[in-house]
Amino acid sequence: MEYVIEMRNIRKEFPGIVANDNITLQLRKGEIHALLGENGAGKSTLMNVLFGLYQPEKGEIHVRGKKVNITDPNVANELGIGMVHQHFMLVEKFTVTENIILGNEPTAKGQVDVKKAAKDVEAISKQYGLSVDPNAKIEDISVGMQQRVEILKTLYRGADILIFDEPTAVLTPQEIKELIAIMKKLISEGKSIILITHKLKEIMEVSDRCTVIRRGVGIGTVDVADTNQDELASMMVGREVNFSIQKKPSEPSNETLEISSLVVEDARKVSAVNGMNLSVRAGEIVGIAGVDGNGQSELIEAITGLRKAKSGSIKLNGKDVTNWKPRRVTESGIGHIPQDRHKHGLVLDFSIGENMVLQTYYKRPFSRNGILNFSTIMDKAKSLIKEYDVRTPSEMTPARALSGGNQQKAIIAREIDRSPNLLIAAQPTRGLDVGAIEFIHSKLVEERDKGKAVLLISFELEEIMNVSDRIAVIYEGKIVAIVRPEETTEQELGLLMAGANRKKAGETT
Amino acid sequence: MKLLKGKWASITVPLLSVALGLLVGGIIMLVSGYNPIVAYAALFNGIFSNTYVLGETVRQMTPLILSGLAVAFAFRTGLFNIGVEGQLLVGWLASVYIGLQFEGLSPVVHIPLAILAAALAGAIWAFVPGFLKAKYQVHEVITTIMMNYVALHVVNAIIRTYLLAPGERTDQINASASLQSPFLETITDFSRLHYGFVVAIIGAIIMWFLLWKTTTGYELRSVGFNKYASEYAGINVQRNIVLSMVISGAFAGAAGAMEGLGTYGYMTVMADFTGVGFDGIAVALLGANGALGVVLASALFGGLKIGALNMQSVAQVPTQLVEIVIAMIIFFVASSYLIHWISNRVSKRGKI
Amino acid sequence: MKKKYGFMLSAVLAAGTLLSACGTNDANNESSGGGSSEGESNNFKVAMVTDTGGVDDKSFNQSAWEGLQQFGKDNGLEEDKGYKYVQSTAASDYQPNLSGLIREDYNLIFGIGFLMQQDIQTIATQKPEAQLALVDSVAVNENDEPMENVASITFKEHQGSFLVGVIAGMQSESNKVGFVGGVDSELIKKFESGFKAGVKSVNPDAEIFTQYADDFNAAEKGQQIAATLYDKGADIIYHAAGGTGNGVFTEAKNRAKNGEKVWVIGVDRDQHEEGMPENVTLTSMVKRVDTAVMEVSKQTMDGNFPGGQVTEFGLEEDGVGIAETQENVSEEALQKVEEYKEQIQSGELEVPSTDEEYKEFESSL
């Protein structure tokens, strides 16, 4: 069998780690080949080797049957390999065409021939059904369109082997559908695709074959038609994975969180939370379902003291905690897994150990009379790392160096370990792989079973449906419906989230 | 090229940087018609040849260490304190003022009092930009620069109006407040080496301890790295911004006390900035904002400054050219990045 | 890589040796040429330390160096071995510079400028065997007596300033003149008082504007102040501001280009050159730092080091006066200058040197 790309027994080492060990990947002409692995398994490293950004210590690369030495990305480009990066590399102020020709400008009499370029871009765009306006400015187009510009960029440079790095991470469900169509179109036009992802659903939907790597080691390649999600997941994680959460029915007791007539303004002084009423009882998980931007962030910030409430009240175990300072709120028994772990959750340049005491460093035994006790802090960190399976070389490693899933586990360890009465989890599994998601969900349920109240905010309906005991639908700063997951469907929720009222929603289903 | 990687890099790279700086400086001298060998011999002799120049080098280091610490401390918390110069001037004046008062006090009381006064003055001077930054998000670079000019002229006006002695300066401070030491002067052949060096080293230890061993330091570093996470953790971000500037200013003020109580024993009407505060920025960067790094970088700066005098005097290299050569050395040390790059490049090529 | 560096280094070394070889050759020639005739005086070594203005300040540092060069040439000394200067870039450099020269066994070391007084005093105490000289101020010990191993050199700047004041008073058409001072100090007050007294002596109705820059090295400030004073109607400005005064010249030249008739009176040296090509230098109050430096050097070489003495250079000693270039000064004014010069020298006229003395002088007119 002729392969367009064959990476044989690749080994790539970094100081202290073997990122890729003996990995083989064979891409057939005209197929979509998924590269599956957990965060930090070595997918990106392998692709960077193929793209010439890293030099492998061992192994060979063959392109169209010929052995090659890809010393830098230019060589990769010449070989017809193009990469659609996860983080777009576009100049916001430039037009689509200008971005596409950047670094590869066609010239006529010494001047850049933008008109010709725009025509070329339009032609390619039509051929592959991308429908991109070559004259639009990047800052004016949607994220999905920007991704298509990235695709166009590789096509314009003559790539016939495309690497997609986690392409769906930034897209809306509708955009994902369109992207899948585009990928299929590309294949039909004779291109070959490597798709880097950890989302099993996508693989099942679009790929022909799938190569799995786990912790830097190649596990194997399978035909997607002959496998299922469970098998892929266990190949990726190395054990059986539970998709549906095993939990007993909730036994809610007294009200832990009571929010009444709450009004919170956003940065533009517009009421983002607009007279909200909500209660969360001990021993239950309340999931807030809603489209991003309907007041979720402001609600959390108001509860945790990061933003002032304009009116209304927030009570925790009967005590009014409205507009308390963040530290007082935290000490009164709230744990908070923030939505943006890099911005709020961690000090990335601190060690994992230092991050583990972010909420408690000023208390004994971690400090005494203002002097930190590092050995106690690091001992605590060590035990948390062990208990929550945070994969890090040591507790002294900077948080920045950890993968997203392990960073999130560190935050969860820190917040749950304080055993708060109310745990707020905002998008706790965003960007994580199935292993980590499973772990986090089980931890949330565990807290509930211990009799704590859990407030879950997520934009992913599947997560809301799976984890929550009750679902509160938020729309324009108000709770518009409260439903039980067993009594509703994703469709109904979707309509509620879009502002339809319950009755109507019920009729349409 | 192996030496440039791994555990040796932290030693070999700075050394190679100094060597490169000397090489380029040498070429410049050669082109300008001076003998670099003679000049560098003079530079070296000017730093190490006798106890006098050694003493002077340490004397020169003393205020540099403290001003470097001031800049580094603010850097650690994410602030750019360009106002060290001004804070140093008000600190200098405060130390001299206290030194002129209280006749017959024991040095054990008088010296710490004068140094604390200097630190306090510097702290107050730095409080203003810190407060404006925390409360109204006014950029500290602008305010600290402006506060430098205010300091210069206010200090001059105070000296002229209240403390003027013949020779455009204040009187000599009382001996009980002086850091000068006949003993140190004798063993270094009358250099101006004074006990301020001990103060500077204590300052470096304080900075290290404060930053790495206390909850205050934890908060300051946290705010410096990530304001949002700090806020989330219940740390008062605004208070810490002000605190960081105040502590930075205190170091700068203490640097002024080194000049006021040590090197000079008085303060003159200043025609221009001393430059010590600005050198502190380079010292801090060169020392990677660490306490030990700052001390070592000060040694390099101080040594070059004192050695340069001899370079001019013995090798007849004009001061301007000496300054260019010194700048080259610092330039290469600061851009050790360049060395890493070259070494990477070479090892890559070597493999192909 | 290593080889490349090695080659470059050896190239530098080789070139260095070559160059230094040339250097020695020259030196040998010179000393063998001049050495035989002036054998004994060749052992005498004299040096100076500039203040932060530097040796090319077009003012008294430069003047002192000119004096030292002349002295060296006259006595067959070799530059950099028999006589030399060392520049200071910061005030903290004064002491190491002075100290370094003592270490190099210089027989006489000048500190130029009153800013160096404290440092000269300290060094003189530490090194009683060294022979030092201080220009523009008096080095004193704890008992306020002149120090034994320091020759203090001062000038009667008020006398010279009086003479240029006379010229300004007579030649001002607007009857308004300006004075720009460097730093408000005892020394510069001598210039100001003498100048004002001179103007008022010949033109009692003249208006005199006075402003200080608080800086000797800020040309841009000097220019601003000059602009203000010219705008107020002054047509002649006398500056006693070192490098700051260069800005006064710049402003005057700019105005002269636009057809305005304005003048500057220079200070310390004959500053005719600084006024060219617009020719805006009316005259200059010269302070013969060069003469003083030569004189003290000569005395010391002859074994008469004037340590412990304060040598005051006035009109009588030709230490101050008006510049040689007099093309822009009217005959009439020159005559008056001569008259006053005689009066001052004879002691008939006492020129004020402080604010108080000036007030007294003014009321006596």
Explain how this protein is built:
The complex is a heterotrimer of chains A (509), B (352) and C (365). By secondary structure, chain A is of the alpha/beta class. Chain A has 3 domains: 3-237, Rossmann fold; 242-333 and 420-509, 3-Layer(aba) Sandwich (Rossmann fold), CATH 3.40.50.300; 348-418, no CATH class. Chain A is 34% helix and 27% strand. In chain A, the strands form 6 sheets. In chain A, strands 6-9-10-3-11-12 form a 6-stranded mixed sheet, sandwiched between helices. Chain A is globular. Chain B contains 15 helices and no strands. Chain B has helices spanning 9-31, 36-48, 51-76, 84-100, 107-136, 140-163, 182-187, 196-213, 215-225, 227-232, 237-263, 276-286, 291-315, 319-334, 336-351. The radius of gyration of chain C is 23 Å and the shape is globular. Classes of the chains: A alpha/beta (509), B mainly alpha (352), C alpha/beta (365). At the B-C interface, helix 1, helix 2, helix 3, helix 6 and helix 13 of B face helix 1, helix 3 and helix 4 of C.
What tags apply to this protein structure?
heterotrimer; A: 509 residues; Rossmann fold; 3 domains; six-stranded mixed β-sheet; 18 helices; globular; disordered C terminus; C: 365 residues; alpha/beta; six-stranded parallel β-sheet; 11 helices; 16% strand
Quick rundown:
Chain A is α/β, with parallel strands linked by helices. The model of chain A is unreliable at 504-509 (pLDDT under 50).
- Number of H- or I-type helical stretches of chain B: 15
Tally of domains of chain B: 1
Oligomer: heterotrimer
Helix count of chain A, per DSSP?
Answer: 18
The tally of strands of chain A reads 24
Q: Largest interface: which pair?
A: B-C, 48 and 47 residues
Indicate the structural class of chain B.
Answer: mainly alpha
Enter the CATH topology name of the largest domain in chain A.
Rossmann fold
Chart the SSEs and their pairings.
The complex is a heterotrimer of chains A (509), B (352) and C (365).
Chain A: E1 3-14, E2 17-28, E3 32-36, H1 43-50, E4 58-63, E5 66-68, H2 73-78, E6 81-84, H3 96-101, E7 107-108, E8 111-112, H4 114-127, H5 143-156, E9 161-165, H6 173-188, E10 192-197, H7 200-206, E11 209-214, E12 217-223, H8 229-237, E13 255-265, E14 271-281, E15 285-289, H9 296-304, E16 309-316, E17 319-320, H10 326-331, E18 334-337, H11 341-345, H12 352-356, E19 367-368, E20 371-372, H13 374-387, H14 404-417, E21 422-426, H15 434-449, E22 453-458, H16 461-467, E23 470-475, E24 478-483, H17 490-497, H18 502-508
Parallel strand pairs in A: 3-10, 3-11, 6-9, 9-10, 15-22, 15-23, 18-21, 21-22
Antiparallel strand pairs in A: 1-2, 1-4, 4-5, 7-8, 11-12, 13-14, 13-16, 16-17, 19-20, 23-24
Helix pairs in contact in A: 14-15, 17-18
Chain B: H1 9-31, H2 36-48, H3 51-76, H4 84-100, H5 107-136, H6 140-163, H7 182-187, H8 196-213, H9 215-225, H10 227-232, H11 237-263, H12 276-286, H13 291-315, H14 319-334, H15 336-351
Helix pairs in contact in B: 1-14, 2-3, 2-13, 3-8, 3-11, 3-12, 3-13, 4-5, 4-6, 4-11, 4-12, 5-6, 5-11, 8-9, 8-11, 8-13, 9-11, 12-13, 13-14
Chain C: H1 2-35, E1 46-49, H2 60-74, E2 83-86, H3 94-103, E3 108-112, H4 117-126, E4 132-135, E5 150-155, H5 157-171, E6 176-181, H6 186-202, E7 207-212, H7 219-231, E8 236-240, H8 245-257, E9 263-268, E10 281-287, H9 289-301, E11 310-313, E12 320-322, H10 331-346, H11 355-364
Parallel strand pairs in C: 1-2, 1-3, 3-4, 4-5, 5-11, 6-7, 6-8, 8-9, 9-10
Antiparallel strand pairs in C: 10-12
Helix pairs in contact in C: 2-9, 3-4, 5-6, 5-10, 6-11, 7-8
